[in-house]
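INFO  loader      accepted 1 record
INFO  loader      residues=281
INFO  predictor   begin
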Amino acid sequence: MVNRTGLVQYVADGTTLDYVGGLEILKRWLIERRKLFQMRDQLSADIVPKGVLIMGISGCGKSLSVKAIASTFELPLYRIDMTEIFSGRHGPPESAFAQACKILEQISPAVCWFDELEMAVTSSESAGEQGRMFAFFLTWMQEKTRGLFVAATANRIDLLPAEMIRKGRFDEVFFVDLPTDDERVEIFRIHLQRRGVDPSKFDLERLKRFTKGWTGAECEQCVVSALTTAKLEERDLTDDDLLNATATIVPLSKTMKEQVDHIREWAFERAVRASPREVVR
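INFO  predictor   done
INFO  writer      dumping tokens
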């Protein structure tokens, strides 16, 4: 019924925090807030978790983290795609957005995922339709039913108005950065395990120096590429397959260096890091 509207989509392919590599600060925060959210009917409104805004570089685990939130909170996950809202297929974006939020109220309790939030409200469009959508969203966030936990993701949080990210709108604003050396090793381990390969048979530590600046998605693609090579040759995966696959991937941190550097610079003092800072050895 929800999916038929085209505005709100039920997300069935969830995951758990165990399959999210790194992001230990964000994980700990979510586990703590789960208890409060489950006690929501016994708590005052200002204590009940309202939601979280996760921003960061594409391919570093924002979407995966949102899926893990639903699993952690033991709630269904529904997604509002802001690109779809603005497609024109559902009438004026302003009314489509309001209708989507109304649908979410009716399916509570749930985790509601606003994907690419910057598509709807930007600091450069404070008047007109986007301005009204922004005002509506802020009011809705304050007045929505307690059974809804909002998980919003954004690639370019610097495009959002300051009022959106100030304390009180969301419970916290997290920045998902490029994974550290140890996080990349963990991500490789997770993706090997997911594909039925025992990660203990591989020297994953040596991949650190060849994958600096990689996103989690690029680590996954490396595993897929290496496994493809091994399967085509009808043999088991080897360390050399993984190492050779690293040479075929040009990371986003190189192809989009200026944009990635800008996002990291902007978030440095404006958001809470989802991961501990990397220790320089």
